[in-house]
Each structure stands twice: as structure tokens, then as C-alpha cells.
Design brief:
- The protein is of the alpha+beta class.
- It contains 5 helices and 6 strands.
- Strand 4 and strand 5 form a beta hairpin.
- Helix 1 packs parallel to helix 4 and helix 1 packs across helix 5.
């Protein structure tokens, strides 16, 4: 490393500048790490991309808008699974979400679940035929890794990605950091930057790194 620097404010209200060590939520750039975890798990023979996901899960994913579909991990990571993002059933929280990854996904994908909607949570096409960008599908890919390896997804990434790459200032949850050091997200409204506050969501493998 020849030169490194940082610019801007991490928190305007506390007058805290960004430093080279300021953690930011990476949003959907997080999906590259989730995909890396999937491929690492395949490399270690914990799973295969073309095995039906239901062979790994403790619940059954069945798209009510299609008949006889088989969803694979390859479909999840290529955004062709037929699972749809229903933002009205994707809860945000102040800080980290109180809902566990698996609990939330089961409630989103299983009939009778707290976040289930047969029409809005799924598309009406067969897996592999149409591409639609998917957050829930990506989070489900992370959960498949968790189930196939027997290790919580965040711990799996810590041990086999972050530690191996010396990413010693990375984590999936706000609780991994001193909140005062994490960059505050802002919205630009009417010429002003308005703080959004630190937030989290149960489908964290799709964006909370």
C-alpha cells in the first residue's frame, strides 16, 4: 500500500469525519460475499449448485404460482428462482433485526407464515426461465450454506472468508462494531442530508455487510 486516505463525514450530527477504518454498510455489494460463501461451501463438498434447495432446508419451499418446480442453489444466486421481493413483508429494524435468518425465511416462504403472501412473494414462472433481481433469494442462498455446513452463516463467513483474507474490520451485524464508529446513512431531501439511523433486517446476507 503506497497511500491511503479518507474523505467526508461519517456522522454530520457528531461532526465525525470518515477515516480509513470507518465501517460502512455495503448494501447489495454484500451479495458478492454471499456468493463467495456459496462457492466455498461447494469447494468443500458441503453442497452443489444444482441440488434442489429443499434437500438442505428444514422447511419446504413451494411456489404456489407454478406446478412441479424445482429450485436449485444456482437459481438463487443467478436471480432466476421465481422467489419475489415483497418489500411490504421485508421488515427493517432499528439496529440488528430481532428475527433469525431461518425463522424469517420460513415465515416468508411457507404458507401460514407471518410474512407469507402467495401472490406477492413469488413470480408465476418456472425456475431458470426468467431473471428478476432477488434479495430474498440471495438471503435464502446464505441460509442454504448455513444448513449445509452446520455453521451459522455469519460465523461461516467470519471463519472461512474474513479471517482467511485478514478482513479483521468486517462483519454482518451492527453488534460486531462500536455503533459510534459506523458511518451514518443519509437521505438527501430538499437540499439537506437527513440521517436515516442505523438499521438492520433479517435477510441480512443480501445487504448488511
Amino acid at each position: 500500500v503506497i497511500w491511503t486516505a479518507a474523505f467526508g463525514m461519517a456522522n454530520k450530527e457528531t461532526d465525525s469525519p470518515v477515516t480509513v477504518d470507518t465501517p460502512f454498510m455495503l448494501a447489495s455489494v454484500s451479495k458478492t460475499v454471499t456468493a463467495t460463501a456459496v462457492m466455498r461451501a461447494q469447494l468443500d463438498n458441503h453442497l452443489t449448485l444444482d441440488e434442489p434447495i429443499n434437500s438442505y432446508l428444514p422447511f419446504t419451499v413451494d411456489n404456489p404460482r407454478t406446478d412441479g418446480e424445482v429450485i436449485t442453489l444456482r437459481h438463487l444466486v443467478s436471480h432466476t428462482s421465481g422467489i419475489r421481493d415483497n418489500w411490504s413483508q421485508m421488515p427493517y429494524a432499528d439496529g440488528d433485526s430481532p428475527y433469525a435468518l431461518g425463522m424469517y425465511l420460513e415465515g416468508y416462504l411457507m404458507q401460514g407464515g407471518d410474512w407469507y403472501n402467495a401472490t406477492e412473494n413469488f413470480y408465476n414462472y418456472m425456475p431458470g426461465t426468467t431473471n428478476n433481481y432477488g434479495n430474498i433469494a440471495t438471503a435464502l442462498a446464505g441460509y442454504v450454506v448455513e444448513r449445509a455446513t452446520g455453521t451459522a452463516f455469519d460465523d461461516y463467513c467470519q471463519e472461512l472468508i474474513f479471517d482467511e483474507l485478514d478482513m479483521d474490520h468486517s462483519g454482518w451485524h451492527l453488534s460486531d462494531f462500536d455503533p459510534a464508529t459506523v458511518a451514518m446513512p443519509y437521505e438527501y431531501t430538499n437540499g439537506q442530508h437527513e440521517p436515516v439511523g442505523h438499521f438492520g433486517y433479517p435477510d441480512y446476507p443480501d445487504g448488511q455487510l
